[in-house]
Amino acid sequence: MAELITVARPYAVAIFRLAKETSTIPLWSDVLAQLALVAGNELALEVVANPKFSVAQVKELLLGLLGGQQSAEVQNFIDAVLENRRFTALPAVAELFEEYKAADAGEVEASIESAFAMTDAQVAELSATLSQQLHRKVTAQVSVNPELIGGVKVTVGDLVVDASVRGKLTALASSLKS
Questions:
Q1: Residue 15: CB atoms within 10 Å
Q2: What is the pTM of this model?
Q3: Exposed/middle/buried for 128, CB within 10 Å: 0-12, 13-18, 19+?
């Protein structure tokens, strides 16, 4: 997965810069979401990988799926993706683009794992605390993971705060081995 993100990042950065300069962030968000959806389809992957179809034919197919006439920038992007054989990276490109879009708007998404179901008040309190610490608006995605035993594990981008019982037991076991 790390390799796919590494491949996708330059595309996402370039597209985000272009979208910001041309004030077309919503347009690119929609185009990338649609392309990511297509790239997630097994039949589409087979067509793109099939040597019987030229890059031009696949491009026309993708443009048709996007609703026909697209800007020159969108067409150039599709050309670059197909010629460099990066079609499978499109979902990661779309995901990174959305992260850059949110960061530009002063927002960040936090993944919160909890050993038990959290109430709306608990999620709101944790989100408010994270917002204060990160100086950004936090959107929380909450999931229940009973393997944590107790507590929570919060992931925001590269930042991981493991305040779970399992995490503390793992840390204790590591310190005892040293």
A1: 24
A2: 0.72
A3: exposed
